[in-house]
Amino acid sequence: MSSSSSNVLVRRRRSGEPVENLRRVRLPTTTTTTIARGMVDDGEGTTTTTSRPTIVLDGANIAWGYSAALHAAFGCKNKQPLSRGVLAALEHPDWEKIGADVVCFVPSTYVEGPLHGLADGGDLATLVPRKLEYLGDGVWRNSALYAEVERGRIRLVERNGRRSADDLKVIEYGRSVGARIISNDRYGDHKMGKGELKNYLKHHLYDYEFVFHTDADRIARGADGGTVEVGSAFLPPPPVEEGAEETNGWNADFHAKGSSRPWARHDSTWGKRPRMKKRRSMGRVVRVRQPSAEEKWFPFWAVDDELIPCSFNPSCKF
Q1: What is the maximum alpha-carbon separation in the chain?
Q2: CA distance 122 to 114
Q3: How many CB atoms lie under 10 A from the CB of residue 225?
């Protein structure tokens, strides 16, 4: 924004001096610069100033948050990270309204790697066929998340055995650009500086919730009476050289071996909860009903997205 002054007197008039003797000059135009609201890292270590706010999404936390929300709302027992949550967070309408730069950090194993560690994967019985593709030699890819990687909205983090690697990346990047971080993780196990991290998170960390605009009965009716494409039976056969004497050629010992998230080996389902247990959501206490036995094992995680209308609601307001 620019502004210029009008003509001004360069000195006071002496006593008795005619006004005509005073010379008038025009001051040079001065420019004021708008303070930038954020910065953007291009991924190569170069940070540029921008007038657009920056939002950093904790992809792993949000992927698990959506799975937990399915359990809380419908009693869904399957416990694994789900890409639907990440995509809903990326598509939140407020980001476009405020012209925000949105960056989401996701562990690389959620996008490509062994089936056990893949988002929408788990094992041959729980995988979501429409979102996955098999690359060969026991390696899988989540096509939905991979498309966002190619668009530049998702950045992959190599954990290399450290589950905290993506947390640290979210915090490091957020602090470097002054971004707002969206996560239900409080990052209480991370320390940086003498209270610097705590102070930053106090003003820049926001939680979120998922709100479903339907109920379990409507979902089941919409899914043709309970038929949902879930599991390897709905995949095309594996390469001939990897075929096996099992249904559709898929073999758990070869195509779904190992685990990139060993903490889930004996904990692949959400625990049992009382009939009306209380839980916290964005600072509020809400009550959750006990699901029926049929609801617990209905594959809500694999139902087509349009049958489970859902809103991602961050607590930050603009």
Answers
A1: 114
A2: 9
A3: 7
- Sheet containing 54-58: give its strands across: 154-157, 101-107, 54-58, 180-182, 205-206
Distance CA 161, CA 163 (A): 6
pTM above 0.85, yes or no: no
Q: How far apart are CA 268 and CA 270, in angstroms?
A: 7
With CA atoms as reference, report the closest residue to 108 among 255, 238, 261, 256: 261
- Closest by alpha carbon to 252, among 270, 234, 231, 269? 231
Taking the C-alpha atoms of residue 48 and residue 101, their distance in angstroms, rounded to an integer, is: 12
For 134-185, write each residue's pLDDT tens digit: 999 999 999 999 999 999 999 999 988 787 889 999 999 999 999 999 999 9
Find out whether 234 and 128 touch, Cβ atoms under 8 Å.
no
Residue with tokens 């170069």: 46
Q: Which tokens hold the place of 256? A: 């779904």
Residue 238 contacts residue 255 (beta carbons within 8 Å): yes
Report the C-alpha gap between 240 and 243 in whole angstroms: 5
Among candidates 106, 117, 127, 160, which has minimal Cα distance to 257? Answer: 117
Cβ atoms < 10 Å from Cβ of 86: 30
Dihedral over Cα of 274, 280, 285, 286: its sign = negative
pLDDT of residue 42: 56
User: What is the rounded distance in angstroms from the CA atom of residue 50 to the CA atom of residue 64?
Assistant: 31
Length of the chain: 318
CB 208 within 8 A of CB 65: yes
Q: What is the CA radius of gyration of the chain?
A: 27
- At 65 the pLDDT is 97
pLDDT digits (tens, 9 = 90+) for 217-254: 888 888 765 578 999 999 998 988 886 555 578 988 88
Angle at 213 between CA 216 and CA 68, to 5 degrees: 65
